[in-house]
Amino acid sequence: MSKIGNLAVGLFVLAMPWAAPAEAAPAEAAPAEAAATRPMIFCCAADNDLFRCAVDNKLDVKRVETPQAAVEAAGPGSGVLLLADGYPGKTTVLPAGLLEQAAAKRLRVYVEFPAALPGLTAGFGRELSRNGPPRRTSLERVVVTSDAFGAALKKMQILAIHDCHYVPVAASNPLLAVAKVAGFDRAVYGLEGVQAQPILFEHGSGGLLVSTTKLSQFITARYAPKEAMQAVWAYVLGWLEGDKGPGRKLEWTATVRPSFGRDEPLPADAARRAVQRGVDWHTRSGMILDEEGWKAYNDLRKTRKIDPGNPIGSLPRTRPGDGRFGVLEGISSQIGYDGSQSVRWWLRSDSNGESSLAFALRWKMDGDERSRAIATNLLDWLYLRSGLFQNDPAKANFGLLFWAPDNAQALYQDNDVKAILGCLGTAGAFKTDRWDEVLVKNILATSAPRACTASAAGGWRTPTCCARAGRATGAGPPCSSSRTTRPGRGRATCGCTTRPTGPPCWRRPATPSAG
Length: 515
Fold this sequence. Notes:
Layout: H1 32-36, E1 40-43, H2 49-56, E2 61-64, H3 67-73, E3 79-82, H4 98-104, E4 108-112, E5 116-117, E6 120-121, E7 135-136, E8 141-144, E9 158-159, E10 165-166, E11 176-179, E12 196-202, E13 208-211, H5 226-240, H6 270-284, H7 291-303, E14 312-313, E15 330-335, E16 341-344, H8 349-366, H9 369-385, H10 413-430, H11 436-447, H12 463-468, E17 479-481, E18 496-498
Parallel strand pairs: 1-2, 1-3, 3-4, 4-13
Antiparallel strand pairs: 5-6, 7-10, 8-9, 8-11, 11-12, 12-13, 14-16, 15-16, 17-18
Helix pairs in contact: 6-8, 8-9, 8-10, 10-11
């Protein structure tokens, strides 16, 4: 394994000594029972996940407000936890001489997200900026790099420490490290030759366990898997008790969790309940917009408060809607350090078509009239009210669906097919011909040879390009593009030229267009 660390961060050795005074007994000489009979001292906010979990698990703990108070309150040989209340905007700053006082009392100290430590520094001040240290993970993941956790957490297992911000330092033999690795739940190729940074390690002078990120918000930030985090905290708490503790296994209720355990027998109506809860989630989560949500959506579009090319933002201000204003694409998979997830603001035509069928099948299963109304309204919005369906025979894209209101030049066959299937299923469940006319037009336009297709390289087909190629009537040969532009780089032009053979013509639109 490659050496963990990045020397470019500007590491240097502080003059402050860490070794205990000569007259003091070494930390290892402290009786095991001394730590076991004294409470662990927490320096953290009252709502810290680890502190609350420790209280719930009936550990002997005491909470104080400052690092100085924690060291003063701790009995000789006991454990102290200095947790990162300011994470991720502010590192944990320790008063000068504090660690020397801890060493004199033979304390075992766990510190998170430190600004500076003896022998190490990250080369930045107390207040952090977004563009400076500490670093924030992008593609990196946290990996177990030690056998210290035992059989419960094996080397090279990957942990989901969501939106991890960490202090970059150099350290030997870390217990956890962060790096870009391949694999789903294990780093299958290891860390050999991979640049990595320590996440959890024991300071070389002893008596100090360092986490370069905030591990103690494991419930709020939904760190996973739960069994792995239990193993991490069992190790940390055992270490704080001088490796003589009973091996604490904390229990807690995860914020997001399965309804049933792995070995728990399912009730007879489990499938029915899953359908009901899954469909109801659309409204409880705010995905089905009401009128207020629709206004918020248009406000974001007009003011460009979110990137129209990748509209990810906070949850809209909306009450459960009835489908008259469509359904949003969904929740972004990225989990923030506070456990939040952003919303993808696309009102995609395929999402609305597919969702209508989900609500229709819910109605067919249990007769829920609200689900029937939402399914009907979603298809009415998609084909009759949103402007996404091109019903003008004079247009080159007659019979096709635009991808979304903010992408009114994008036409994808697979998108139309998904909407068609949703409409077919919903109409069949309701035994109605309500959408037959638009459905036939959509099917014919999508299946016709003249329909444009999207390029694998990311090009978008457009009505303008299809028309120039003579595809409005299906008579023209394929065309090629002599020019491709991107949004925000001037007026986009197709530049189609007819020719016997060649790829379709692609254009990225400068601005959305309804026709």
